[in-house]
Amino acid sequence: MVTLECRGSFGAALSPKEAEKLASLAFRMAGERGSAVASLTVVDDATIRRLNRQYRGKDKVTDVLSFGFFGTKGKFPLPPGSGPAALGDIFISLPQIRRQAKMADRSVRQEFGLMVVHGLLHLLGFDHETLAQERRMFRLQQDILLTAKLI
Fold first, then answer.
1. Higher model confidence: residue 34 or residue 72?
2. Angle 141-85-129 (CA atoms, 0-180°, nearest 5)?
3. What pTM, to 2 d.p., does this model score?
4. Domain 2-147 belongs to what architecture?
5. Where are the alpha helices (DSSP H) in the chain?
6. What are the structural domain ranges in the chain?
7. What is the 3-state secondary structure (H, E, C) of 102-136?
């Protein structure tokens, strides 16, 4: 189970409670057990651009950024009985999500859900730097979204 500490205005996207349920589903389908906590902050384009520039050296707007407390090399350490694992922070640009949804002919709800799943998987150590990593991560994303009936 994942507890999401939500901040910002979700607009017509998923509600904070729906985002939390989706994150918990992704957590379980990624093979994790126990409980975890992460933050999810909905921001504007200027904020996500600043974060992207500051932490990734990319001076451009993006859809989602994840900052994991355990890095992205493999599973996060969760000793048995240690309580919820603090995974990290997810930032989503709602204006960018709206643009992408329109371009992909999806609802804002669907696109936002995809970014919640994508961001959480990054916190769990998944990446898409190589073709093999991309196939694995994107296949899992697709399975999660199908299970959640978001696609």
1. 34
2. 40
3. 0.91
4. 3-Layer(aba) Sandwich (3.40)
5. 16-29, 45-56, 94-104, 108-123, 131-147
6. 2-147
7. HHHCCCHHHHHHHHHHHHHHHHCCCCCCCHHHHHH
